[in-house]
């Protein structure tokens, strides 16, 4: 089936928009510590005395890990995590911890999605679709099921950005038109590496627990 130049242009334009959105959200994820089971921060690190059963609705709102320290991140462009190179694909393949976006909690090892990893997984899904579109501009390269998942991810990431409401001021190249932010600022973040370490410990505990 032949496709018009307009159709191909529209697909490539949509891919470019998704690329920009994905990169912007990746910065948001690195800067914020929001989770589905929210990650504790030094601000809200009070430990509840309640012993949760992790049955039904009896589980904490926050993933009960040690309070996260504040760390700094200087924003910069990088050759890593490209969506259309072999090296970038390999980096995206290992960006999640060993247990994926899931941790298992409680005596029955109930699975929970950790929001930070959920967000990164969504970026990976969008990256995968962008890669397919750029290698094959035929719109049939993306199945209906994958389009639905991508739509969920775009909306979920949009809501997480709004939830964060980050008001850090960033300079722009131009006061009018399509001014792009210049990555010359340093953000104060929560220690995301500590979240990864806790996720790996959780996975090892789960794997070493008799089923």
From TrEMBL:
<keyword id="KW-0812">Transmembrane</keyword>
<dbReference type="Pfam" id="PF11807">
    <property type="entry name" value="UstYa"/>
</dbReference>
<keyword id="KW-1133">Transmembrane helix</keyword>
<feature type="transmembrane region" description="Helical">
    <location>
        <begin position="12"/>
        <end position="31"/>
    </location>
</feature>
<dbReference type="GO" id="GO:0043386">
    <property type="term" value="P:mycotoxin biosynthetic process"/>
</dbReference>
<protein>
    <recommendedName>
        <fullName>DUF3328 domain-containing protein</fullName>
    </recommendedName>
</protein>
<dbReference type="InterPro" id="IPR021765">
    <property type="entry name" value="UstYa-like"/>
</dbReference>
<comment type="pathway">
    <text>Mycotoxin biosynthesis.</text>
</comment>
<comment type="similarity">
    <text>Belongs to the ustYa family.</text>
</comment>
<keyword id="KW-0472">Membrane</keyword>
């Amino acid at each position: 089936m032949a496709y018009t130049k307009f159709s191909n242009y529209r697909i490539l334009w949509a891919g470019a928009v998704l690329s920009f959105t994905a990169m912007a959200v990746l910065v948001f994820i690195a800067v914020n510590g929001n989770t589905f089971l929210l990650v504790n921060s030094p601000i809200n690190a009070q430990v509840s005395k309640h012993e949760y059963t992790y049955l039904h609705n009896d589980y904490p709102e926050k993933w009960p890990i040690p309070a996260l320290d504040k760390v700094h991140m200087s924003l910069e462009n990088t050759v890593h995590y490209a969506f259309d190179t072999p090296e970038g694909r390999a980096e995206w393949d290992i960006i999640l911890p060993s247990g994926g976006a899931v941790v298992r909690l409680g005596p029955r090892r109930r699975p929970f999605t950790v929001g930070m990893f959920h967000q990164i997984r969504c970026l990976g899904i969008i990256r995968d679709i962008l890669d397919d579109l750029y290698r094959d501009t035929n719109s049939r390269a993306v199945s209906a099921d994958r389009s639905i998942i991508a739509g969920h991810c775009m909306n979920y990431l949009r809501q997480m950005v709004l939830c964060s409401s980050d008001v850090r001021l960033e300079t722009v190249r131009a006061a009018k038109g399509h001014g792009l932010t210049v990555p010359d600022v340093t953000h104060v973040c929560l220690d995301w590496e500590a979240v990864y370490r806790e996720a790996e410990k959780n996975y090892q505990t789960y794997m070493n627990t008799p089923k």
